[in-house]
Structures are given as structure tokens and as C-alpha cells.
């Protein structure tokens, strides 16, 4: 498998950091220090940025594009863990664990641009810029909070409810042109691909949605809102 | 006429195991030296079975979601 070649390395302006929430909130001095370390990399679609099991040599911040996070299970089957888009950091946990190996593979789904921070510079920033450490702590607190919400949803809401909510959110979103696979939807709502497929077929049978080749068309808003246990608009 | 969308095959990920070819209910795929290709693209119903069969995540069958046009 190919690891993404660095198509172009660009010197970075501090203004390039504004779309990365974790970085944009840092004090100017810290951002200036970061901008000296960060290297911009362009990744073609379907190229791997990080390979699971390799030594963790860098973390990344997504400037543009969408990535998916993959893990290979004991049977050699690849499992989609999540999708990441603009602003999200990649591979930070791998730099913080003692083993320092990449915990998952990360692959671009679209042409993408990332800012790379190598492990040595990451360590240096942690030591010299307490605001950077605090920003990382906040980021992980938000991640844990999200995982807690997801765990609560898993125990309190059925897959039908979670999938109906996901479909409504996706169709209502201005970025709904974004394409999701059933594996990625399953990872997002905390289930497996087969259950997503089965539930979509159930919705189709009930007349809530219809399928037109690649497109799922949501037909019955009030029915889906009922499935999603949301208050109707 | 617009061309039908087909699942996307990433040959860098593909190990040519053939699971997609044997699993396709419409026999739309065949295996080549480079990897699987859609030999009968018109047969593809976009059931996404090939994506589910692929053990290496080499096939993506993304779907689009939209509301029906309201009158």
C-alpha cells in the first residue's frame, strides 16, 4: 500500500492556522512557534497518511478534505472507526502513548491538505508551551464528553432512532453532498454495517425513504422525526 | 445521459482476493491483474454488497442522502 507522498511542502503563514480550532485559540507567541514547526502536505484521495502499527512519527491537523480512520482486526478485516474533516487533529494519541506506534491507519477520502508536526517538535511544544498542553487537554475532554454521550445513546436509543437522527442531520446539513458509506455511518452511530443496511431496508419498506441507485431520498419527514424521537419542527 | 455511479475501487488497498467478484449478485465485476473491474457496469444496482465483502476496505460505495423535493 502506498503512503501518501508529499506533493508539495509549503512554508506556512500564521493565517493558515485559523481553521484549526485547537491551534487558533492559542496565544500568538505559541502560534508563531507552531508555525515554524508545521509543514503543509497535500494528500491525494485514497492515499494513506498514517499506517497502523508503524512508529508514530508525527501528528497532523486537517486544513481541508475528509479522512477515514481504519483498524485491522485479528482476522485481517478492515474496520472503519471514524471520519475526520477540516480542523480535526490526527494521530495525537499515538504520540502520547508510551509505545509511540500508530494506533490506526488514516486514509484520505478526498484530495486533502494537512499540517504535519513531527514527534520531536510535538514534544518540544508540550514542554515549552503550556497553552498547547491545555488545548490538548480541552480537546481530549471534549472527545471524552462525546464518547460519554455516544455511550448514553447506545444504551438509551435504538439503532433505528440513531439512524433516523443521522439521516435527518445529514439531509438538513448544508454539506449533505458529503458521501458516507454504510461502514462509516455504522461507525458514527455506534453499530455495524449489516444493521445499518437492514434498518435502511426497513425504512424503505415503511415508505420513510426511497432508494434511487446511489441516493437515499427521505420521503416522510414527520415519520422520520417520529422514528428519531425528535420534536417536530 | 448521465453515467450511473459505481462503487470506487482503490487498487492500492486491494489484495485481489476476489471476494467482491464472487459476492456480486449481478456478476458485474471481474478480476484482472490490476484488481477487480466492472465488466458489466450496467448490471450494477449499487447494492453495496461488494463493499461489505471486501476484507481490506478497498471498495467504497458512498451514498448520498437528500430530502425529496417538496411541492
Write a concise keyword list for the protein shown above:
heterodimer; A: 233 residues; alpha+beta; Jelly Rolls; Arc Repressor Mutant, subunit A; 4-stranded antiparallel β-sheet; 9 helices; 10 strands; 42% helix; 21% strand; elongated; B: 71 residues; Alpha-Beta Plaits; two-stranded antiparallel sheet; 2 helices; 5 strands; 20% strand; globular
Task: Please render the helix and strand layout as text.
The complex is a heterodimer of chains A (233) and B (71).
Chain A: H1 21-24, H2 28-37, E1 39-43, E2 48-50, E3 58-64, E4 67-72, E5 78-84, E6 89-90, H3 92-96, E7 105-108, E8 112-118, H4 119-128, H5 130-156, H6 159-172, H7 182-189, H8 193-205, E9 209-212, E10 215-218, H9 221-227
Antiparallel strand pairs in A: 1-8, 2-7, 3-6, 3-8, 4-5, 4-7, 9-10
Chain B: E1 8-9, H1 19-23, E2 29-31, E3 36-38, H2 49-53, E4 59-60, E5 64-67
Antiparallel strand pairs in B: 1-4, 2-3
Named CATH topology of the largest domain in chain A? Jelly Rolls
Query: Strand content of the residues of chain B, in percent?
Result: 15-25%
In terms of per-residue confidence, which ranges of chain B show pLDDT below 50 for 5 or more consecutive residues?
none
Order of helices and strands of chain B: EHEEHEE
Strand order across the biggest sheet of chain B? 1-4
Helix count of chain B equals 2
Most extensive chain interface and residues per partner: A-B, 35 and 23 residues
Report on the structure:
- The complex is a heterodimer of chains A (233) and B (71).
- By secondary structure, chain A is of the alpha+beta class.
- Chain A has helices at residues 21-24, 28-37, 92-96, 119-128, 130-156, 159-172, 182-189, 193-205, 221-227; strands at residues 39-43, 48-50, 58-64, 67-72, 78-84, 89-90, 105-108, 112-118, 209-212, 215-218.
- Chain A has a four-stranded antiparallel β-sheet with strand order 1-8-3-6. Chain A has a four-stranded antiparallel β-sheet with strand order 2-7-4-5. In chain A, strands 9-10 form a two-stranded antiparallel ribbon.
- Chain B is of the alpha+beta class and 71 residues long.
- In chain B, the strands form two sheets. Chain B has a two-stranded antiparallel sheet with strand order 1-4. Chain B has a two-stranded antiparallel sheet with strand order 2-3.
- The interface between A and B is medium-sized, with 35 and 23 residues.
